[in-house]
Design goal:
The chain is α+β, with helices and mostly antiparallel strands. It has a single domain, classed as Herpes Virus-1 (2-Layer Sandwich). 29% of the residues lie in helices and 16% in strands. The chain has two helices and six strands. The strands form three sheets. A two-stranded antiparallel ribbon has the order 1-2. Strands 3-4 form a two-stranded antiparallel sheet. It is globular, with a radius of gyration of 19 Å. GO terms for molecular function: zinc ion binding. This is Zinc finger, FYVE domain containing 21 (Predicted), isoform CRA_c. Keywords: Metal-binding, Zinc, Zinc-finger.
Length: 134
């Protein structure tokens, strides 16, 4: 692979979204096959109550959107800030309890298993002569 192609594959840009800062590939074709698109947020007018505990939103009980599923929750039900690598967020983001659990499990998988899978895949490709041996 030429250095020009490699540089394009690694090129990323910082994007500000309603959910937070994201570091995304310059070109969608170079994105991760494991990536997730940001969800459509449930419109504020369609969620007068927390979608978990049914608390009514008011001046004191504020509405928050889970960055992973887009649903509306009160602070108690959506207080965890968890890394969300599959959406390329720079910082940990607010997630509901169900989504936070999934994100924690995914992070554990990526940290432990994906490195093994990727290194094994590269070894296989190297043995087939499809990539240069380092």
């Amino acid at each position: 692979m030429s250095s020009g192609v490699a540089a394009r594959c690694d090129a990323k840009k910082l994007v500000r979204s309603p959910s937070g800062l994201r570091m995304v590939p310059e070109h969608r074709a170079f994105g991760s096959p494991f990536g997730l698109e940001e969800p459509q947020w449930v419109p504020d007018k369609e969620c007068p109550r927390c979608m978990q505990c049914d608390a009514k939103f008011d001046f004191i009980t504020r509405k928050h959107h889970c960055r992973r599923c887009g649903k509306c929750f009160c602070d108690r039900c959506c207080s965890q800030k968890v890394p969300l690598r599959r959406m390329c967020f720079v910082d940990p983001v607010r997630q509901c309890a169900d989504c936070a659990l999934v994100s924690h499990r995914e992070a554990e998988f990526y940290d432990k298993q994906l490195k093994v899978l990727v290194s094994g895949e590269l070894s296989c490709l190297e043995s087939m002569g499809l990539v240069a041996v380092r």
